[in-house]
Amino acid sequence: MANQNQCNFTGRIGKLDIRYIPSNDIFIPFTTFSLAISKSMKDSNGQWIDDTTWINCKAFKQIAEYIEKHAQKGTFVRVTTTYQENKWTDKSGQQRISPEFLVNDIEILGNRKEKKPQESQGRTGIPTTNPIHQADFEDQDIPF
Questions:
Q1: Is 74 left (phi over 0), alpha (psi -120 to 50) or beta?
Q2: How many whole angstroms separate alpha carbon 12 and alpha carbon 10?
Q3: What does the pLDDT look like over 52-93, one tens digit per residue?
Q4: Cβ(65)–Cβ(28) under 8 Å?
């Protein structure tokens, strides 16, 4: 049976933190980042407003290394994640829960500031694409 705990998000990376955590005799790459998910809608006056939701993401091992090499603040990405809850007790003794998302796959859709050209090429198992612009197509190229 397929994993029922799957979430897909498209947005821009905000705060990005990369660490290496010890495990036996090796260090495992570990990345945490926030992801801005935006939507536009009209308010009651007919004006367009942007609404942004921030989610907290975590990535380990190969995906964390890939993010370290190819992503930065502002990178436009699509992530496939699983949801989990981080539970803890705060200083006043209150139980707290914060949602977090473990990254299973990431696809870089574009960077605001491009890195070296050879770095923008994809790695096996982790797809990347170049952004597609509407101006790249003629009307006759569209099949419908």
A1: left
A2: 7
A3: 999 999 999 999 999 999 998 999 999 999 999 989 899 999
A4: no
